[in-house]
Amino acid sequence: MTTKEYKLDNVIASTKLPPIEVRHRDLKRYGDSAFKSECPECNTGLLLVGRDATTFKLQKEDTCTYCSRKFIYTDIKEEVALEYISV
Questions:
Q1: What is the pTM of this model?
Q2: Which of 22, 31, 59, 77 is the most exposed place for a label (fewest CB within 10 A)?
Q3: Where are the domains positioned within the chain?
Q4: Which among 19, 9, 18, 1 has a CA at the least distance from the CA of 71?
């Protein structure tokens, strides 16, 4: 089995597991970004904290860019949203 095949098998297995609950404030940041965090599961991929395209609310669900493990942020409130003030 090649490394690529091994990674694909792990990614497929990760998508079938229930999400891990984490607190965003406890994650190790990637570089100087306030939003990018290192994946606590594989320590290789990133968690990017997305926003809803229409409401700009922070999304509680996230997926690692490398291992595809799913996470739920327990410290992101549903009502948190970015509001633009027109000048």
A1: 0.75
A2: 31
A3: 3-73
A4: 19
